[in-house]
Amino acid sequence: MARTRRPLIAGNWKMNGLRADGLALAKGVADGVKQAGWSDRDVLVCPPATLVLAVAEAVKGSGVLVGGENCHAKANGAHTGEIAAEMLHDCGATYVIVGHSERRADCGETDAIVRAKAEAAWRAGLVPIVCIGETLAEREAGKTLSVLETQLKGSVPAGSTAANLVVAYEPVWAIGTGKTPTTPEVAAAHAHIRKVLGGLTGEAAQFRLLYGGSVKGSNAAELLAAGDVDGALVGGASLKADEFLAIAKAA
Ligand SMILES: O=C(CO)COP(=O)(O)O
């Protein structure tokens, strides 16, 4: 299929992976990507912070990109346990996920905090992947599109372009549940996201919009073919090299 936007398949490993497993997974992905020789899509792995440096070294030369799962808004300072975007960049990352719903829920991250983190990513030379998505209660109340719009307006900084920012639509109720929206529902959400981004930035057509939430090898082709979907943000299925590669192949 002719695409105007370069697909991005991103794996979010979440809080999974000790060194041996993480390195084996990274090598498996790197070998598969090298063998496939893709020049028409990006494959990104986002390991826990403890593995960013080792994974970046393990995938060097394969074309696989590396990202962080989160960053702090500040470049340094008295923030015990936090990780600056500059530190991720220093370890070989080129992307960072910000505003994942697990962090919004677990750590109370607001749209304003997410926006500050996206700006921090730019400061460090990283591309932020800004996550948005409705809860089941919001979907059932018919509020999906308005929730996405509010999150976008609050989380996407001024100065965002298709080259410096990616948006991931992850319905909270689809994460880790095996449930997914229907293809028309995904397409409707992505069309709305693109429209809102157009209003915010004036250049919506080229933005890469990822779908995330229970993406697997078996449903990737269908989800990736939905209108305005330019890739996937994959959780559980990114922990198996073969399955993650199958998803990347479907892009
Ligand atoms: O949260 C996700 C990716 O960021 C999706 O997780 P699952 O693919 O495990 O549903």
Automatic annotation (TrEMBL):
Cite the CDD domains for this sequence: TIM
InterPro entries from the UniProt entry: Aldolase_TIM, TIM_sf, TrioseP_Isoase_bac/euk, Triosephosphate_isomerase, Triosephosphate_isomerase_AS
The reaction(s) annotated as catalysed by this protein in its Swiss-Prot or TrEMBL entry are: D-glyceraldehyde 3-phosphate = dihydroxyacetone phosphate; L-erythrulose 1-phosphate = D-erythrulose 4-phosphate
Which residues bind substrate per the record? Answer: 12-14, 176, 214, 235-236
Which pathway does it take part in?
Carbohydrate metabolism; erythritol degradation; Carbohydrate biosynthesis; gluconeogenesis; Carbohydrate degradation; glycolysis; D-glyceraldehyde 3-phosphate from glycerone phosphate: step 1/1
For this protein, the record's PROSITE patterns field holds: TIM_1, TIM_2
Taking the first listed entry, what is the main subcellular location of this protein, grouped into a coarse class?
Answer: cytoplasm
Question: Which GO cellular component terms are attached?
Answer: cytosol
Q: Where in the cell is it found?
A: Cytoplasm
Per the record, the GO terms for biological process are: gluconeogenesis; glyceraldehyde-3-phosphate biosynthetic process; glycerol catabolic process; glycolytic process
Pfam families for this protein = TIM
Quote the subunit structure annotation.
Homodimer.
Q: What's its job? A: Involved in the gluconeogenesis. Catalyzes stereospecifically the conversion of dihydroxyacetone phosphate (DHAP) to D-glyceraldehyde-3-phosphate (G3P).
What is the protein's name according to its record?
A: Triosephosphate isomerase
**The organism's lineage?**
Bacteria, Pseudomonadati, Pseudomonadota, Alphaproteobacteria, Hyphomicrobiales
